[in-house]
Amino acid sequence: MLNNSQVEYDTIIPNNVSLSSDKRVLKALERWHPGYIDWWKDLGPVGFQDMLVYLRTAINVDKDGWATFDYVKMPEYRWGILLAPQKEGRTIPFGDHIGEPVWQEVPGEYRSMLRRLIVIQGDTEPASIEQQRFLGSTAPSLYDMRNLFQVNVEEGRHLWAMVYLLQKYFGSDGREEANELLKRQSGSEDAPRMLGAFNESTPDWLSFFMFTAFTDRDGKMQLEALAQSGFDPLSRTCRFMLTEEAHHMFVGENGVRRVIKKTCEMMNKAGISDPYDISKIRELGVIDLPTIQKKINLHYSLSLDLFGSEISTNAANTYTAGVKGRFWETKIKDDHILKNDTYPILEFTDGQIINKKAPALLSLNMRLRDDYTKDTAVSIKRWNRTIEEAKINFEMKLPFEGFNRKIGTFMSANISPLGDVLTKENWNKEENTFLPTKDDNLFIESLMKPVSEPGRYADWISAPDLGIDNKPGDFEYVKIHDS
Ligand code: BYC
Known about the structure:
The protein is mostly helical. The structure holds benzoyl coenzyme A.
């Protein structure tokens, strides 16, 4: 293992890639930096920019002790370029180049393929910050506000990570792409973000928790697949990003669990046993479980679209090239070439859902999506345990994969969360029971009143079991009163 875990602070950009001796890239990044800060101030978190936030900052890339916690003003966060240590003798683990030494430079034949993937990955990072920018002012506690800002600054760092790769390895077109990443904008009509879910709004905190539980988990799966890449700098970058990503999913999964816990507690306190007694439950000032299920239906289906089509020549090409692998590729026991293998998929043809065996190479998006679903099911299990512990008769479920899809074989289908094919007319009749309605959203928004007293939480969400960095319950995670 080469020893490059230590971070250097001799330039304005903390890094472990010896930027100070790479004048061309350092200069390019220093030129990009002011535009990034302008973008952060214009389209990053609204308000709170002058306040001290208890944030973790990456200080090295060792497995243990890579982060330090301290009060920081967000615009002064040290966004660094951190790659996991290079593994001596690493070889390409899949595709036509299997067994060859990994590439330290971009192979000419795969240049545009790699650039496209890096740009798409990069585009999602600022998009999520833009989507979440208004949430600070309705935070249910200082603890939650701090978690939001932690997620935001780290997504900002992930943008830096992709911009470094573009600036270092893709010359002038990489520089142009890096600039474009600051120009597209989530939800914009003229220049939207590249992938669907990143143009949706995140209007309330339940949406934020759902987004971090479901969409950040797509991030995890995609980063795991890119971490297998034969292009070693991309692999190393993604490996380190994954260490930060874990906290984002914790914020989401735990956030949803705390909302469910509070609802169940209040139902029990009020003696309401029927989870569908929605108006009575809402009168208690908490979010009823069927509405939470509808939010799950929405966010899960939006996130499934992020895996692309079930059958994809793009995915086959990136795999064969050795550029993007499968989830935990090196642990899978097969030939890692897949030219003779098949994979089970569903197809929507002539109004029917059909089981099929498709070529494994063409089905790689589907396979990654299946791995995602397995990973997500763990969260659902934990949420159901909370409901069970409260002895309430309700079970959260992931909807059927063909429900509410805009990408892939099910895009023109009307399918219920249980997997029934519906006529358009029946879909229209039932849609309100499948997906959050305007009234559901208005109700949730009506609960979004800020709570800023240390140790206090809004009435619709329970307190976390543990503080961040083992801090006590009344710790002031954001100094909003005396910064
Ligand atoms: N929306 O063969 P196809 C994260 C396009 S999240 C719009 O079906 P492919 C994060 C596709 O681009 C992870 N367009 O799919 C989370 C292609 O267009 P072109 C982000 C879509 O290419 C939370 C055409 O349809 N990283 O990190 O195999 C917070 C046909 O494509 C969509 C990545 O995604 C869509 N949903 O797979 C912060 C990894 N889906 O090229 C961050 C990099 C497909 O024909 N990206 N299209 O014009 C990839 O690996 C692949 O591009 C995709 C799509 C998995 C996204």
